[in-house]
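Entry type: protein chain
Record version: 2
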Amino acid sequence: MKLNRENIFEGIPPVLVKELFQTLAESGTVRVERIISDGHGTPQGEWYDQGWDEWVLLISGGATLLFDGESTPQTLKPGDHLMIPAGCRHRVESTTANQKTIWLAVHFQENKQTFSG
């Protein structure tokens, strides 16, 4: 069996008009995703409200996340990670504009339903 080794820092487009979401692995009820931001944020007035848990790790760059009901955004730096429970409304207020922000996200679905995000 030949396994394909890849690098989280390779294959990143030099210019991103919008955030890039790439599934790296998926099995059963778990999906691992690389997200690349380049000064992007959630559009004003919009929120993420997912039907599954998501664990995120900020690998490079920086970001601020705002959670519904909180008045102050959380600032993330490389190495910071957190678990976002299903139904926890949140938004990306901003990401670093002078360096690509790379996230590793692990999505946990409770049952075998297909992910839709």
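Comment: The mean pLDDT is 92.
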